[in-house]
């Protein structure tokens, strides 16, 4: 198009301004919506990642979610150890969540020992020393030192047990006014180490007393010439008679002997002080053992096919840490690996639907030990209905499981005052032998438990002269181990109750303890040695035992279980 002068003129396009505005507004809306969705997705991803990391690395902090009535300020959660594989995080999360969901009521009443508790223990030792006619009890850092003065060997010597003796000497002193016996405690210590000993915070209400020795002195002669031992000596001789604890190293024993001390081993009333637990100790043992059992029960619910023995150990340890318990050993064994009671394999065996799982585990709370064992099927093996036909290999596992449980039940009946330590073992062993598996029960039935997982008295059939006393705590852990097949063990912790008047005069009382226990022992030994002997003779012997048993009270207060509740089936450990 040209104007009048012949110049070209370009026509402006027609613009729909309303439509353009609508397009721009639409783009803005979609852009804002996209940004909002992106931001929301990012927030969701961040929240998911935070939640996942929190579950994986800080699962123990879930204690904060528990009702305050079940919180124990003395038991903080312990930092979890990193897992060897991220694939275990779901398994661990399930286990810890299940355990925390119980509310942890078993931890509610446990509290650590106080200074007064430690002083009471030392005073009991002083009274026991007088009863045993001993002038002093001498201890070096270890479990016994921990029990009486709250210092373990690693807490004194972080690097290794050293050659310089640091000894606690507990002596009985008598108050001239009331005649009451109490403990006087002195420490034999290198001079340069005394300030460090002061910083250990040992539970004494009075300043610590030291006999100090220089590096170029003989520490044992220094002790004997220190003047802390005064005549007349309690033992009634011219020698200073000292009792040492069972863990004392040989060179210290020899050094004390060479310095003129008469050294005797741990025994008598002195040994029994640690064996009989106080109310506070019992509550701690109840808490740590019940917690350990509960951890095993809850982890079982989370098991899946393909897990290895070692992987279960990892997660079980962290589950215990999450509730404030300190694991110190784990044994997880599948099927034929459990035929060796304490394992020894590399932990690589894989969990399958019909696997028999044996878990033996211990943890610490306030330095007291748990030691429990459970044997069970994984949760993904369906429990057969009543009357349902069961494959022979599974039927054998179930049968052996029930025999071992009955053996534990019978052993419990002997965990009473004035029974012999041997009688507990013999009762369990008889059940297993009668079922035809006598040779497959290869260890003692149990042991004392306290600040040390294994401590005296020991429950074996040769210990016929040790009477059980109220306040003692024991494991009962019978087992059957079938080579190349499987192993079964049930282990719980029990408290010997207070004796009633009738129980104090049972046939297994002090005067008849040895003869009664020996009667059962001889019966079993004779049955083993004289297989095929005259049935009438054996029956008369059994009748004699039954006649003696008729003299017992019909009602006897049984032991108290300190590990929650016993297993009821391979599907309910």
UniProtKB/TrEMBL annotation:
The chain crosses the membrane at residues 32-53. Coiled coil: none annotated. The keyword Membrane applies. Residues 516-573 are annotated as: Disordered. Gene3D superfamilies: Creatinase/methionine aminopeptidase superfamily, Creatinase/prolidase N-terminal domain. GO terms for molecular function: aminopeptidase activity. Keywords: Aminopeptidase, Hydrolase, Membrane, Protease, Transmembrane, Transmembrane helix. Residues 284-497 form the Peptidase M24 domain. Pfam families: Peptidase_M24 (PF00557). Residues 524-536 have a biased composition (Acidic residues). InterPro entries: Creatin/AminoP/Spt16_N, Creatinase/aminopeptidase-like, Pept_M24, Peptidase_M24B. The keyword Ligase does not apply. This is Creatinase/aminopeptidase. It comes from Xylona heveae (strain CBS 132557 / TC161).
């Amino acid at each position: 198009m040209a104007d009048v002068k012949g110049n070209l003129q370009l026509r402006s396009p027609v613009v729909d301004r309303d439509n353009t505005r609508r397009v721009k507004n639409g783009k803005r809306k979609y852009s804002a919506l996209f940004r909002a969705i992106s931001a929301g997705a990012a927030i969701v991803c961040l929240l998911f990642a935070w939640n996942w990391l929190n579950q994986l690395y800080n699962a123990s902090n879930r204690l904060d979610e528990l009702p305050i009535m079940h919180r124990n300020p003395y038991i903080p959660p312990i930092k979890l150890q990193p897992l060897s594989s991220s694939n275990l995080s779901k398994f661990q999360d399930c286990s810890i969540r299940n355990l925390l969901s119980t509310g942890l009521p078993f931890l509610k009443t446990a509290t650590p020992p106080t200074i007064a508790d430690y002083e009471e223990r030392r005073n009991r030792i002083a009274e026991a020393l007088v009863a045993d006619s001993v002038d002093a009890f001498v201890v070096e850092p270890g479990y016994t030192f921990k029990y009486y003065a709250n210092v373990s060997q690693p807490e004194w010597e972080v690097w290794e047990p050293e050659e310089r003796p640091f000894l606690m000497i507990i002596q009985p002193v008598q108050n001239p006014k009331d005649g009451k016996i109490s403990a006087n405690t002195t420490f034999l210590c290198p001079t340069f180490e005394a300030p460090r000993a002061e910083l250990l915070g040992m539970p004494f209400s009075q300043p610590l007393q030291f006999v100090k020795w220089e590096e170029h002195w003989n520490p044992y002669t220094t002790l004997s010439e220190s003047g802390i031992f005064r005549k007349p000596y309690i033992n009634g001789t011219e020698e200073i008679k000292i009792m040492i604890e069972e863990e004392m190293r040989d060179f210290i024993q020899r050094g004390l002997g060479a310095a003129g001390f008469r050294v005797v081993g741990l025994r008598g009333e002195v040994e029994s002080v640690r064996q009989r637990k106080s109310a506070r100790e019992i509550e701690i043992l109840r808490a740590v053992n019940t917690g350990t059992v509960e951890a095993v029960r809850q982890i079982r619910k989370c098991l899946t096919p393909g897990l290895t023995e070692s992987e279960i150990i990892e997660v079980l340890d962290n589950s215990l840490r999450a509730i404030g318990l300190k694991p110190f050993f784990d044994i997880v064994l599948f099927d034929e690996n459990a035929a060796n009671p304490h394992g020894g394999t590399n932990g690589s065996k894989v969990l399958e639907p019909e696997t028999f799982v044996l878990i033996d585990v211990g943890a610490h709370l306030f330095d007291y030990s748990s030691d429990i064992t459970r044997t069970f099927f994984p949760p993904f093996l369906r429990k057969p209905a009543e009357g349902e036909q069961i494959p022979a290999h599974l039927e054998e596992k179930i049968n052996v499981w029930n025999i071992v449980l009955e053996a534990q039940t019978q052993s419990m009946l002997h965990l009473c005052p004035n029974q012999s330590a041997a009688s507990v073992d013999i009762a369990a062993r008889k059940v297993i032998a009668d079922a035809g598996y006598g040779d497959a029960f290869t260890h003692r039935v149990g042991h004392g438990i306290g600040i040390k997982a294994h401590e005296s008295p020991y429950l074996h059939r040769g210990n016929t002269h040790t009477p059980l006393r109220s306040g003692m705590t024991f494991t009962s852990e019978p087992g059957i181990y079938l080579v190349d097949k499987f192993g079964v063990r049930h282990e719980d912790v029990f408290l010997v109750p207070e004796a009633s008047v009738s129980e104090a005069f049972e046939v297994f009382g002090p005067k008849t303890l040895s003869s009664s226990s020996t009667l059962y022992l001889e019966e079993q030994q004779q049955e083993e040695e004289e297989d095929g002997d005259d049935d009438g003779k054996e029956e008369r012997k059994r009748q004699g035992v039954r006649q003696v048993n008729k003299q017992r009270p019909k009602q006897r207060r049984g032991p108290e279980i300190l590990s929650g509740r016993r297993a009821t089936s391979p599907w309910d450990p």
